[in-house]
Design goal:
alpha+beta, HIT family, subunit A, 5-stranded antiparallel sheet, 5 strands, globular, HIT-like_sf, HIT-like, HIT domain-containing protein, HIT_Hint
């Protein structure tokens, strides 16, 4: 049974479920930042997924990332699985723009996260759900 890591639950908001992954929104308002978590139990590394599931994870991440880049007019798309702090496999999909708070460096360890207002959080959540639908990731 799939169980979400408590830190992912704390640091992000559920948006919707895709074919393989739970789509979540990072609570850091500095960047358009989605997190995809395969809804599979005890998956820590990519190779813990079946071969087709690995391909599906990348399809979901790249299709969502492409839609996010168009919508948010990004300069670079960062897609990463780190897992040093949270071992549960999760894929970060982050739109970066020249001059953002961490540009050109990585977003991790740069400055302080900025919280969304409730209204902005719901707006961004709705945008991500719409982008996932437009990318063909939702029925």
């Amino acid at each position: 049974m799939f169980t979400l890591d408590p830190r992912l639950a704390q640091d992000s908001l559920h948006v919707t479920d895709l074919g393989l992954c739970q789509l979540r929104l990072s609570r850091d308002a500095r960047y358009p930042w989605a997190i995809l978590i395969p809804r599979r139990p005890e998956v820590i590394e990519l190779y813990h997924l079946e071969t087709e599931e690995q391909a599906q994870l990348w399809r979901e991440g790249t299709r969502l990332g492409e839609a996010m880049m168009r919508h948010y007019a990004g300069d670079k798309l960062n897609v990463a699985t780190l897992g040093n702090m949270v071992p549960q496999l999760h894929l970060h999909v982050i739109v970066r723009t020249r001059g953002d708070d961490a540009w050109p460096g990585p977003v991790w360890g740069q400055g302080e996260a900025r919280a969304y207002t409730e209204a902005d959080l719901e707006t961004r959540r709705g945008e991500l759900e719409r982008l996932a639908r437009e990318a063909g990731l939702l029925a």
